[in-house]
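Predict the holo structure. Ligand: adenosine-5'-diphosphate.
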Amino acid sequence: MAESVELPGRLAILPFRNKVLLPGAIIRIRCTSPRSVKLVEQELWQREEKGLIGVLPVRDSAETTTVAPTLSPGVVTDSADRTPKNQAGTSESHKHDGKNQQEVIHWHNRGVAARALHLSRGVEKPSGRVTYIVVLEGLCRFSVQELSTRGTYYTARITSLDMTKPEMEQVEQDQEFIALSRQFKATAMELISVLEQKQKTGGRTKVLLETVPVHKLADIFVASFEISFEEQLSMLDSVDVKIRLSKATELVDRHLQSIRVAEKITQKVEGQLSKSQKEFLLRQQMSTCMMYLSFIIQMRAIKEELGDNDDEEDDLTALERKMQDAGMPANIWKHAHRELRRLKKMQPQQPGYNSSRVYLELIADLPWQKASEELQLDLKAAKERLDSDHYGLVKVKQRIIEYLAVRKLKADARGPVLCFVGPPGVGKTSLASSVAAALGRKFVRISLGGVKDEADIRGHRRTYIGSMPGRLIDGLKRVGVCNPVMLLDEIDKTGSDVRGDPASALLEVLDPEQNKTFNDHYLSVPFDLSKVIFVATANRKQPIPPPLLDRMEVIELPGYTPEEKLKIAMRHLIPRVLDQHGLNADFLQIPECMVKLVIERYTREAGVRDLERNLAALARAAAVRVAEQHPLPLSKDVQRLPSPLLDSKLAEGAEVEMEVIPMGVNNHDISNAFSISSPLIVDEPMLEKVLGPPKFNDQETAERVVTPGIAVGLVWTAFGGEVQFVEATDMVGKGDLHLTGQLGDVIKESAQIALTWVRARTTELKLSTEENNLLEGRDIHIHFPAGAVPKDGPSAGVTLVTSLVSLFSQRKVRSDTAMTGEMTLRGLVLPVGGIKDKVLAAHRYGIKRVILPERNLKDLVEVPATVLSSLEIIVAKRMEDVLEHAFEGGCPWRQHSKL
Ligand code: ADP
């Protein structure tokens, strides 16, 4: 509860039927009427900042006839569709235009401004009724000047009834007020003592009594009693603090007396009570406990607002207990305890207090000994799990099983760290999590992508402001056990700069000899990492520093063939995507031929991530279509808050008639909510509608290799194999070579070598007849699209030569042929890496012929037979062999010689 709240001039009004919200009270309500739902939606749900609303008590029309009017005049309505009926003269009433035209609303003219502490929204089944559950906190009293409607709900022009600070200061000097306060506090204190005795809790609540202004305390106490509507109204009307205090004292006293009487009766008659009588008494005691709990909660909320910290000592005791329970080694306990003693001597406002506390919290949270119990490893079950989670990858799974088998025989085996290397989306992460599942261990992923600072791994020393532990210690804190499977993701993306070398810290982590005493700078005490099973992933092997690579066993996962992707999609991705969208095969079917089209036309990746994304787009579209064709999808339960206390205070008065308000679809419930006659079957028009026009086709290379000077290369990138076009052109100039396309040093040198080789063979190649200098009066420009992607490596050598020969001979290169290979200055074609990925990439692009270095022939065993059978593989020993096969009808010079 804020000290003083700035109220706006107008508030949206939520009517509370036969119920009053007092300032300081926290109440949970369910709004179901169209009016209140709209109000909550517009005033609270859709607003980003915390909105205020006014809660105004209304009285049932039936009751107005039996109780004396407590309502005041002067409230008017400007609503045209409502008939003002100020029958009682002192009360405001008017007709509802809902279901019951005759229902008359009797407004009270004083209310309480409230703010929402928690909101949850739901749709009920099968009616489709939208409801909100709102936890409201009463802030301060206001009086209504004028009531009107905004759309469907009411708003009111209001004035605050809270006293200003000077007014309050003046009242506090008043002798009568002082006496009343004293009396109230004494009674309240007595009640608290009785309740605390019953609850067997320490005497902290009494301290709280001293910290909250007494006029607010009065409201809070009364709010937690179960008293009649009339008494609640009269408390609300007690704007004068003296009246409020005397009323509250009376109610507290009454409550106290009733507890005492109940106790006496219990003691006297306990032995003679019947079962139902005992139950009644128990219920009475329960309600007293509830009241106490409610009181404590409200007090705490206020205390937090006031920034009070007399809980500090207890928090430190709790922290100490947590530290004792953490099971840390003796030497670390000694260190931590010393720090705790230091903390205890400090004032919370003192610099360093917070950092010291956060540090100790971390020490207490770390899993020094807590470990997940390792299952007796069942290799057969592990294999089944790997098989059921992943299609194909036979060799990889076999290696994982071997790894697990060794662990089974020797649990503390210091085997190498597994490192899955491959393009994105090939299943590296999901394989690692399957390993964790097979071992029955928890799984935690540490992302190392872009880590350049050693402190990211080892943490910052505590002397720095904003220091924190490194990612490993943080990961262990998150996972809460000391023996998880920890995935060091993208280990190839760590780099080193002036801030140190993360790789050297990782070296320590992965070294079984050193990681028993891993030193995090922030933690400043050693932590034993030896129980952690590390698994790493990388897109490429080359960037991993050799010492680190030496500690790991690399398992390569090349990309998938289209056939493999199809199987993965049909068996794993589609069922998962449907499930994630709350659909099943009764709603959406994606035939195999359509998945094939998605693979061919909308993805060109080594893994299956884009494929999964496209399938998800289809599922989303289907979900919308299903939802559009049917009435509202309905969810069964409104999200519930965990607090039983607040549940018990659900104000039924706030629940009125119902109305269906359209809302966003909760996909998870679609399949439960609809019965559909026939499933939606994805066809080509739907593909185009949802995924757009096809992004890729087989004709791309033919379309791009249209003029002499363009050759198709095969390169290896972090995303797997790729087709790389090389474009060469010439223009008037001074014989310079221009290179563009974000090229690295190695590829630039390859271009130089290529040009030199071609120039040296001008005559043999019959590229120039008159003069020997190819570059006479012209510049050469070679470009590697796409210009934004950095490229490097020697394997474009043969492609560069081919494009230059094509340019100078003015003959087009075959568009169905792609090539890869490094070339020496003498024209020898040297082997290159990533053959399987490159061949797969060529296959993806619909290329028919691939020229490879002869010494790479052995690598073809890794390429699936289905891919090989659709390609003509040509091996080259020398550059002339490449040229011979790159041009239609053979090498240009042969054609010349034939002429
Ligand atoms: P990575 O870590 O290699 O980038 P992920 O492990 O995140 O890739 O895989 C991306 C998605 O593809 C995941 O949903 C994963 O389950 C799925 N996936 C990849 N390979 C396979 C496979 N062989 N069988 C089944 N699903 C696979």
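The mean pLDDT is 77. Residues 390-393, 424-430, 537, 568, 572, 607-609, 612 surround adenosine-5'-diphosphate (CB under 6 Å).
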